[in-house]
Specification:
Layout: E1 4-9, H1 27-30, E2 35-40, H2 49-54, E3 57-60, E4 79-82, H3 92-97, E5 101-103, H4 106-125, H5 128-136, E6 155-159, H6 163-172, E7 178-182, H7 188-191, E8 196-198, H8 201-207, E9 210-213, H9 227-232, E10 238-241, H10 250-258, E11 264-267, E12 287-289, H11 298-316, H12 333-338
Parallel strand pairs: 1-2, 1-3, 3-4, 4-5, 6-7, 6-9, 7-8, 9-10, 10-11, 11-12
Helix pairs in contact: 4-6, 4-11
Length: about 350
């Protein structure tokens, strides 16, 4: 077999240039002498045509992969293995048209995203940021003015009942909440064992005490939670976004929070990332914010890295990777020859 060169995007390195995950995960690649790996890019800039010409496969985090990077005749790239699950940074039609296999890693984010959403729910319900401010500013006697919200009997509504959404329902089950979800791809018999009822979007938005966004960003979900949808929410409801910023109309959310038309929100994502320090949302005290990093735990990062590396190694060994996003590419002559089909 010939050597196989894999590029790893630098965004999963820490500030000191070391892996942010347990480096033992790199053994998945390093144990094979015919696999060459190296870090490429600066962690934020898009993949370039030179990258696509240099590598047989890339393990990709946040950088964008656009059609222009795949248009040159010297392109070697045959595999793109996403560390995460979202594909909104990848031009999937262009990748597919180029005959490149695209994989993602839903298992790598399932528990970490669900537990992060749960953490946000608990922080909002128990007014943790407010309680922290009361102590730090000498307002101890105001604590009875900020009662928390019990979860038992409340309605948890999810937009997206896929891998991550179902994990959240499992984690939160002991708290005795009512579970509803909106997901055009979910089947009632699949989510019924979790006590989940499938409803239309307006029903979920209007009935949820805690509304969690857990769906992919695509043409059908961009701007889905707009001013109209937010007006349907209860005044006592909380919104949690663990998916992508553009799914929620940020200006509409800001106005609803400023005018106290909903109780609060928590978000790990923004329309523009990094979000400007002047973003008016950051001046509000009824929203909890995080820099698209709530899932960055030792466990979560290890699983993200391992998933991407396992896909790359499986492809190199002419085995089908775990999660293929564009399976029709397998029918191209080049892929049939690669996999010996």
């Amino acid at each position: 077999m010939t050597r196989f060169r894999i590029g790893l995007s630098r965004d999963i390195l820490s500030a000191d240039g070391k892996p942010s995950f347990d480096p033992v995960a790199l053994k998945i690649l390093d144990d094979d002498p015919l696999l060459d790996r190296e870090w490429f890019g600066d962690g934020t800039s898009p993949v370039t045509a030179a990258d696509a010409a240099r590598y047989d496969g890339i393990c990709l985090g946040a950088p964008e992969l656009r059609a222009s990077a795949l248009a040159q005749p010297d392109r070697k790239l045959r595999l793109v293995a996403r560390f995460g699950v979202g594909l909104d940074h990848c031009d999937v039609p262009a990748i597919t048209a180029a005959g490149i296999l695209l994989t993602n890693n839903p298992e790598g984010v399932r528990r970490s995203v669900a537990s992060s959403a749960f953490a946000f729910i608990l922080a909002l319900a128990h007014r943790i940021p407010t309680m922290d401010r009361l102590v730090r500013t000498g307002r101890w006697n105001e604590r009875m003015n900020h009662l928390g919200t019990g979860l038992a009997g409340k309605t948890l509504g999810l937009i997206g009942a896929g891998n991550t959404g179902r994990e959240l329902f499992r984690l939160i089950a002991p708290f005795g909440m009512r579970h509803i979800a909106c997901d055009p791809f979910a089947k009632a018999e699949e989510v019924a064992p979790l006590g989940v009822s499938l409803c239309d979007l307006d029903t979920v938005v209007s009935q949820a005490d805690f509304l969690v966004i857990a769906c992919p960003l695509d043409a059908t979900t961009r701007g889905m939670i707009d001013a109209r949808a937010i007006r349907l929410m209860k005044r006592s409801a909380f919104l949690v976004n663990m998916a992508r910023g553009p799914i929620v109309d940020e200006q509409a959310l800001y106005l609803a929070l400023k005018e106290h038309r909903i109780a609060g929100a928590a978000t790990d994502v923004f329309e523009e990332e990094p979000t400007p320090v002047g973003n008016p949302l950051l001046a509000l005290d009824n929203i909890i914010v995080a820099p698209h990093a709530m899932t960055y735990t030792d466990e979560g990062l290890r699983m993200l890295a391992e998933g991407g590396f396992k896909s790359a190694r499986a492809f190199f060994n002419r085995q089908l990777p775990y999660r293929i996003c564009n399976p029709n590419v397998l029918e191209t002559p080049a892929m049939k020859a690669w996999f010996g089909r």
